[in-house]
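seq as requested:
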Amino acid sequence: MVRWARLAFDYQRSGNYVTGLNQLPQFRDVSNFNVGVYMQQTGQFLEEDTLSIAGTFAKYFSSNYMPDKPYGLDPRTAALIGVGYRTAASGAFGNAAK
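struct tokens:
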């Protein structure tokens, strides 16, 4: 699932791990916001689960893993994921998953 999620929602990078990745920092905020929205709308994950999964992804696939921060996430990344999750839970995009 992690591989599929990276391909579908990781707007911050293009390319692949074999031939190389190209960073697209202009998409950082929207990518992290969308991770929160998507995970909430599945109805299967709590916000804490979402942050934990994102932290695991960062540990193995990101250059900005921060082991001294909660979930290993850069504070801005964690905040944007949380905002996306809570925005989706508010019903702003229709019926929120329960």
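DSSP finds four helices and two strands in the chain.
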